[in-house]
Amino acid sequence: MRASRYLVVSDTVYADGRGNPVRLVLNTRTSRVCTLGDNLAWALRHGDCATLPVEVSDQLSDLKILVPEGRDELTDVMDEQRAKARSLASLNYVLVPTGYCNLGCEYCGQVHVRGKTSANHRGAVRDRILRGIRRPSTEEVQVGWFGGEPLMAYAIVRDLARQFVEAAEAEGVRYRSRMTTGGALLTMPKLRALYEECRISSLCLTMDGIGDRRSPHEQILSVLADLVAHADEFPGLRLTIRSSLDVKDVNRVDAFIDAMVSAGLNHPMIEFDLRVVQGWSNDASTTRTARQRFAAAEPRWLRRMHEVGMVTRTLIPAQLRGPLCPAVTRTAEVISSSGAIFSCTEHPLVPEHEQGDVLELVEHADHDRQRPAGRYDDWHDRINRGEQSCAGCVFLPVCGGSCPKHWGEGNSPCPSYKFNIQQRLDLEAARTGLTPLLT
């Protein structure tokens, strides 16, 4: 047996409750953090496992910390991710019901214009998804409402969602729905309709421009505070407040935390997700600098958010629960308000992609077939062949390569935990009562 290639051992030695020296060991295959004696953890880090007692070896094998000598773990990981991406049981549709947005975020690469879809567009979208729901192989359908600003097409969302829900119930198919919105058009009546009628169980609200004039209007915070006050009426609703940071925003996170606490949004039903702005096929020359500053400051933000009761994205990277993204999944597709079907969520309403990356038009598509192949459908094979640097990364099981599109554009999309995992392990140790052992 040998140590798995997917282990991260803490640099810090801690003292457990009895004063024994221990380290944390993260297995990214399982997203599990184990507390092991310092000598054992040191042996795992340096691959010195031949002399381990049989009972210890068996225990570590059960935890996938030790694997058989010669085991091709990269292929194992890719096979697991391929299976999720190729399963016919779960269909995923991301719908862009309107090309218009009422915000106009600086980093967005989409072009937002007022205008109507073709007369047959809504019917074609409806028919395509209903056909998918009724396929004998379908067990689950996920519908995401994206933008533009999807609430600019609120009536369309309600009309289509009602038909999707009815069909799923009639076919005995699990139905899940989510929406990404800027939030400016949200009201409590709309929230109730989205939750009860449209069956939206996951709502991502984007709040960008932390601490400056672009910050969310008081009305948004008021609606969210009202939602929190009636949380028991929305069981199972997952609300994520996501803030995308550029270079100038990195210094405003503390103000953002203060604002969220003052509004009473440090509540278990709300999860916060801070991330670095990514370019949408436009100039992202400042992204690398922002990412470096973000990764350096993030552990302090995570600590403070935890102290004030704000729920954050998982401190320790979680396992991929499904396929990486629609772009690598033939049973997933993105339908733009333009009528074009794409594989990538960053293609709709972006001129160069609306010109060059259309897979087919929804009004002309064969609704009994999967979308045509996209440029990233072979992503797992590329990694398995070693054509992507992700093949040698310890975080591949939880990251999956992050974003094939950004890699293809020469913009590394590696998640922040790749650069601050040791500080995250220190935070995890503090949460579990371990203290750094002074040397």
Automatic annotation (TrEMBL):
| CDD domains (alphabetical) | Radical_SAM
The cross-references to SUPFAM superfamilies, in alphabetical order and at most eight, read:
Radical SAM enzymes (SSF102114)
Q: What GO terms are given for molecular function? A: iron-sulfur cluster binding; metal ion binding; oxidoreductase activity
Name the InterPro entries on file: 4Fe4S-binding_SPASM_dom, Aldolase_TIM, rSAM, rSAM_sf, Sulphatase_maturase_rSAM
Q: Does the keyword 4Fe-4S apply?
A: no
What keywords sit in the KW lines? Iron, Iron-sulfur, Metal-binding, S-adenosyl-L-methionine
Spell out the protein name for this chain: Radical SAM core domain-containing protein
The organism encoding this protein is Kutzneria kofuensis
